[in-house]
Amino acid sequence: MIRTENLYKYYSSHVRHEVRAIQNINLNIPRSSFVVFNGPSGSGKTTLLNVVGTLDRPTEGRVFMYDEDITAFSDIALSRLRRGKIGFIFQDFHLIPRLSGWENVSYPLIPLGIDSKRRYERARELLEKVGLGDRLDHTPEELSGGQQQRVAIARALINNPEIIIADEPTSNIDEETSGLILEILRELKTRGVTILVATHDASFEKVADVIYTLKNGKLL
Ligand SMILES: Nc1ncnc2c1ncn2[C@@H]1O[C@H](COP(=O)(O)OP(=O)(O)OP(=O)(O)O)[C@@H](O)[C@H]1O
Ligand SMILES: [Mg+2]
User: Fold this and answer.
1) Domains in the chain, CATH or no CATH each
2) pTM for this one?
3) Which residue, by CA, sits nearest to atom 26 of ligand 1?
4) Cα angle value 105/47/192 (rounded, 5°)
5) Smallest-distance ligand from the CA of 16
């Protein structure tokens, strides 16, 4: 499903030395697996998820998805791939401030030309699933951290993704909400979704099919 070959990402600037954020990463992730990445702060987890998730390009190496070398894709082809196949959940939610819960959730459907009534219905269904059926019209600032993360999860699911990429999805929220998020991800896995999570949450590590530890940009 997802494969990487000798993946490197360097960051450089005029004033600082080059940072080798990830080095020589070779992964082979079958469909429907639950993969956890852990490792200390700065070890390259976010960089790796961003490169694998097509949000960033590697300095060297290749990423394959569905046996296609997506490193060769244009930006437009990559955004089409993301829109069709990948759902993202970020540590700091990345919700749009002035939009209501249902508008945030259904936002990715706008470029697909889906009308507002259908967008609303689909968003409502997903927000009910994450226990926020009574918060459809609340804006992010009117929601708690855990509620914002649940809105972000509903948004990640709006395109029925085949791949979920979650960067520390539970580090800013309470234990009960973390448990709900883990349950949702587990259920998606049983339906064939491939899940990649960067986390230190031990409850995620318990259900993972494989745990990769990063240190100084390398897989241990
Ligand atoms: N845009 C950037 N420019 C320069 N260096 C960067 C950039 N992004 C990340 N880095 C560096 O790359 C390394 C890996 O960072 P990354 O964010 O991937 O780590 P992480 O494992 O996700 O850490 P954390 O657990 O704190 O989220 C760090 O040394 C960081 O300083
Ligand atoms: Mg990170």
Assistant:
1) 30-58+73-219 (3.40.50.300)
2) 0.94
3) 41
4) 50
5) 1
